[in-house]
Design goal:
The protein contains 14 helices and 23 strands. With about 475 residues, it is of the alpha/beta class. The strands form seven sheets. Strands 5-4-2-6-7-8-22 form a seven-stranded parallel sheet, sandwiched between helices. Helix 1 crosses helix 12, helix 6 crosses helix 7 and helix 12 crosses helix 13. The mean pLDDT is about 95. The structure holds nicotinamide-adenine-dinucleotide.
Length: about 475
């Protein structure tokens, strides 16, 4: 890789957690930011971060943050202008964000995490375990817009995909012969999506990576946080709810507060299969696992307000995880969603496969358009050490978000949709493999042989959510 111009930074960077994303992002940050390792510290309860101390000379504090100790742990490290990069699980994003905003400390995370139990306590109602509720609480911390920049949920998805959606909208407009200046305001992006006739947006991902050692009984295997994936797999399925939808699914519920941009289903995301399409394999079945981008993108692209706006696309994740994660989910379901006793992260032992992560925009004049990153494991390893194809798509988004924050340090609390997509994509692109767009004539009704009657299907509008539900 050719030499890069480093982003100046004179503060300290404190990283919380050193799992698949922390380990993968550290070499990227040290490459792209003028940051001596002595000004970096990692707080993490596992001994894994010792590797970073040996390899890079960063400082490490082996400790678990809790609701009781986090103030005391963070205070000594952070002054105004320093950076807190939260890449942990089971540490409240809301608590860390409030801490940073009160001290003019820059902040970025990749997921809105609650404290332990926030995703799966028996005492919580399904709606309290949704990303809608978590996001609403986080955005309530927004005050004046000139506080320290804090970017929430900026990895690959959520994160990068918000920028891919904007680029995909511009690409479709260009391919339809429309010449117009690029939108600059939220309302203009929503109007563009509406004028193109985009009805549904999937975050359509197919992970085909594998290791030689296959999943064993009693083991959950994945290419990124096992704890994180189990947590979101067991949350209720959630989706941005489009204005073209004719009726709520029988198992759906609305929230009585907030933007009304999304609904949730009274079933786990990992038990909610949906038909989708990715360029490598074509039609496939993914899971409607909840993610905050389904809500933020839907809200960002809304024309009008409330539960019945003039225009809003249906937006959700359709995730086909790697083969062993798929088997792990099957076993998890058979255990009534009680986690397996053992976990295994696939990283250095991956021997083949790739991650195709993109956005699939449907219902417009060219039918369906997938735009995204197609990254093979060999390419990922050549581009940056300690990364798989999955982690590099995430860590590139993290690195880009950190650099943008350093360039714009007083912008307050922001979601990915509110950042300039071209600047972020330019920073990420060298790490995304092929960044490509594909048109397809696929619809969820295509090639559906009538083996059994499917009375719920809506033949006169393929883009109704009920047509996407599978299984
Ligand atoms: P991981 O499970 O591999 O690592 C989590 C890290 O958090 C570990 O180092 C663990 O020791 C640490 N940790 C656990 N409890 C802690 C505590 N109390 N205090 C401090 N550290 C603690 O997870 P990962 O794959 O690296 O993912 C990190 C985060 O990024 C998760 O929230 C995950 O959901 C999110 N993520 C987001 C994206 C995206 O595209 N937006 C993609 C992958 C992961």
């Amino acid at each position: 890789m050719k030499a890069v111009a480093q982003q100046p930074f004179s503060g300290r960077l404190l990283m919380i957690g050193y799992g698949s994303i922390g380990r993968g992002v550290l070499p990227l940050l040290l490459r792209h930011i003028a940051l001596e390792p002595a000004r970096v510290c990692i707080i993490c309860p596992s001994p894994a971060a010792r590797e970073a101390a040996r390899e890079y000379g960063v400082q490490v504090q082996e400790e678990a943050l809790t609701e009781e100790n986090f103030h005391q742990c963070l205070e000594p490290w952070l002054q105004p202008g320093d950076f807190l990069l939260n890449l942990s699980v089971q540490v409240s994003s809301q608590a860390l964000l409030a801490f940073c905003q009160a001290r003019q400390v820059l902040y970025l995370d990749t997921c809105t995490e609650p404290w332990v139990g926030g995703y799966d306590s028996d005492e919580l109602q399904p709606q309290e375990r949704t990303n809608y509720a978590l996001r609403h609480a986080l955005l309530a911390l927004r005050g004046s817009t000139d506080t320290a920049t804090a970017i929430i949920t900026h990895g690959a998805n959520p994160g990068l995909v918000s920028h891919l959606v904007k680029q995909a909208l511009e690409n479709i407009a260009r391919d339809l012969g429309q010449t117009r200046p690029s939108p600059t305001r939220r309302e203009e992006w929503a109007q563009l999506a509406r004028s193109l006739g985009v009805k549904v947006i999937h975050i359509a991902e197919y992970d085909s990576q594998y290791a030689e050692r296959r999943k064993e009984p009693g083991e959950f295997v994945n290419t990124w946080s096992v704890e994180g994936f189990i947590a979101e797999a067991r949350q209720p399925a959630e989706l941005g709810w489009g204005s073209h939808e004719r009726g709520l699914p029988p198992d759906a519920r609305r929230h009585p507060y907030g933007s009304h941009a999304a609904i949730y289903l009274q079933r786990p995301g990992a038990a909610t299969p949906v038909h989708t399409w990715t360029p490598g394999v074509g039609p496939t079945l993914g899971f409607l696992v909840t993610h905050s981008e389904a809500i933020s993108i839907a809200q960002y692209l809304t024309v009008g307000e409330g539960p019945h706006p003039v225009y809003r696309p249906t937006v959700h994740y359709a995730y086909r995880p790697c083969d062993d994660a798929l088997l792990s989910l099957h076993e998890l379901a058979s255990r009534h969603w009680r986690p397996q006793p053992r976990q295994r992260l696939l990283d250095d032992d991956i021997v083949g496969g790739r991650d195709e992560l993109g956005v699939l925009l449907m219902g417009h004049a060219r039918n369906a358009y997938w735009y995204g990153s197609r990254l093979a494991i060999e390419e990922a390893r050549a581009l940056c050490p300690h990364n798989s194809a999955t982690s590099l798509q995430v860590t590139a988004g993290v690195m880009a978000g950190v650099i943008w924050s350093l360039r714009n340090p007083q912008r307050g609390i922001l979601e990915p949709d509110e950042l300039p997509h071209r600047e972020i994509l330019d920073l990420c692109a060298p790490y995304l493999g092929k960044l490509e767009g594909f048109y397809s004539d696929w619809t969820p009704l295509a090639q559906r042989p009538p083996l059994f009657p499917e009375p719920g299907l809506c033949e006169d509008d393929p883009w109704q959510f009920r047509n996407f539900r599978g299984g």
